[in-house]
Design a protein that fits this description.
Layout lengths: L2 H8 L2 H4 L13 H6 L6 H12 L5 H9 L6 H5 L6 H15 L4 H14 L3 H16 L2 H8 L9 H5 L8 H5 L4 E2 L7 E5 L3 H6 L1 H13 L2 E4 L9 H5 L3 H15 L6 E4 L2 H7 L11 H12 E3 H8 L10 E5 L3 H5 L5 H9 L3 E3 L15 H4 L1 H18 L3 E4 L2 H13 L7 E4 H7 L4
Parallel strand pairs: 2-3, 2-4, 4-5, 6-7, 6-8, 8-9
Antiparallel strand pairs: 1-3
Helix pairs in contact: 4-5, 5-7, 14-25, 16-18, 19-21, 23-24
Length: about 425
């Protein structure tokens, strides 16, 4: 096989011909709307991939348009020819990652982040514990008063303002591995805690467990689970994503559960695509298919079990900002809305464009901050038109991004962003 044929295979060149350049994707693409450039639209990116695969352009020509893509998959929901944009995107990112010239320092940083930091529960606990100390010791207040946080890289000054309250190290480590409250249980489930969810949104994870228990489920938390691999796949590190998938499949199939629960739209989207990582007919593909069949968002399972009776009226107006990956990849749309509508006293006002991305997209808002803020501004214009007292989300990245949007708009005294499970617990379900 020639070098060009190898490149075409990695770029999923054959799939680019499904795109007929009709332009249906243009109104759905956030980066096309904010950047107003054809190269930053889905069809423009596909055309560039095709040109590179044919030797008419270089991989360098692809780098900026591909790295500026949110990967929100909104284009796939409107595409009349069912273009597999996600496969083209991840294949292209893998090629870019392989051919990109990197300094030794960047190589070391990537190895640390993707091979050691995100897959490690110890590192995630350390991140959570350090954030707790930063909040409780007064360092956060001091840094904000003196302006010291402004010298931090990657706009950390903005994000640290909207971090949720962190649990103590003791509370984090005292969490059990198995919970059961009602016998017989309504279902036996395993909870995928997620790396960022468990380190930064620990209380939301606790509320997820509690909601499942109040629904009568038995809840297991496999100790050997790891990062879902979404960040790895989205940055072109497919082999690392495969290894993490194998680790998670192995960890969860040891327990004979009815569901594998997640509460993060981005993580869930990767989990339900594990079978795409392996060649059909192989043992790992078969195991991945069985794994995927059990993966469910927390909202779907709570609706299916239907055992929650909300006791406390909240008497507030809320809007729902759906996770792109939960909507466009997992196909979960109705369950969160159904749960919100069950809460007494809550008035749900839907956004004009709920499916428009908030600009978080994993770590997009960190590595492409300015572009992300342009997208967030469009989203917040929609939110301000609804003027809710609460913005409900279903993904940690979306939650931080919407909190940042509230902060940027100066709406802290009027509105806040909250994860769906936290809103449900606030209504005292029994």
């Amino acid at each position: 096989m020639s070098d060009l044929q190898v490149l075409q295979d990695k770029l999923n060149y054959d799939k680019t011909f499904d795109c007929v350049q009709c332009g249906y994707c243009l109104p759905a693409c956030p980066t096309y709307e904010t950047m107003e450039r054809e190269t930053h639209s889905p069809r423009g990116r596909i055309n560039l991939v095709k040109m590179v695969a044919e030797g008419k352009a270089t991989v360098n020509d692809l780098e900026s348009p591909i790295e500026k893509c949110l990967g929100c998959m909104a284009c796939t929901t409107v595409c009349p020819t069912n273009v597999q944009y996600g496969e083209i995107l991840e294949g292209t990112k893998e090629v870019i990652d392989e051919q990109k010239e990197k300094t030794k320092r960047r190589q070391q940083m990537e190895r640390f982040l993707f091979d050691e930091f995100f897959p490690s529960k110890n590192w995630m606990d350390t991140l959570g514990d350090a954030s707790w100390f930063y909040q409780k010791s007064g360092l956060q207040t001091m840094a904000q008063r003196t302006g010291a946080s402004k010298i931090a890289p990657l706009h950390i000054e903005e994000f640290e303002k909207v971090l949720p309250e962190m649990p103590s190290p003791k509370r984090r480590r005292d969490r059990a591995k198995r919970y059961i409250r009602k016998r017989p249980s309504t279902a036996k489930v395993a909870f995928f805690t997620g790396c960022i969810m468990d380190s930064v949104f620990f209380y939301s994870n606790e509320n997820t467990i509690e909601l499942l228990l109040r629904s009568g489920a038995e809840v297991l938390i496999p100790e050997e689970q790891s990062c879902c691999g979404a960040l790895h796949a989205h940055t072109g590190k497919k082999e690392s994503a495969k290894e993490l998938a194998k680790q998670n499949i192995d960890a969860f199939e040891k327990e004979n559960v009815d569901y594998i629960i997640n509460n993060a739209g981005g993580c869930g989207a990767k989990l339900v695509e594990y079978d795409h990582l392996f060649e059909k007919g192989t043992e790992w593909h078969q195991r991945a298919v069985r794994f995927v069949e059990k993966v469910k968002d927390i909202s779907e399972v709570l609706v299916d079990l239907d055992h929650l009776d909300f006791q406390k009226p909240l008497n507030k107006t809320v809007t729902y900002q759906p996770s792109c990956h939960m909507t466009n990849v997992q196909g979960v749309t109705d369950a969160p809305l159904e749960l919100i509508k069950k809460i007494p006293g809550v008035q749900l006002k839907e956004l004009d464009r709920p499916d428009f991305c908030c600009g978080s997209a994993g770590i997009y808002n960190v590595v492409n901050y300015e572009e992300s803020m342009d997208i967030l501004d469009v989203k917040m214009e929609d939110v301000c038109g609804v003027a809710p007292e609460g913005i409900v989300t279903s993904n940690p990245g979306c939650l931080l991004q919407m909190k940042l949007g509230v902060e940027r708009e100066g709406l802290n005294d009027k509105s806040d962003a909250v994860h769906l499970v936290d809103l449900l617990m606030e209504a005292d379900p029994q």
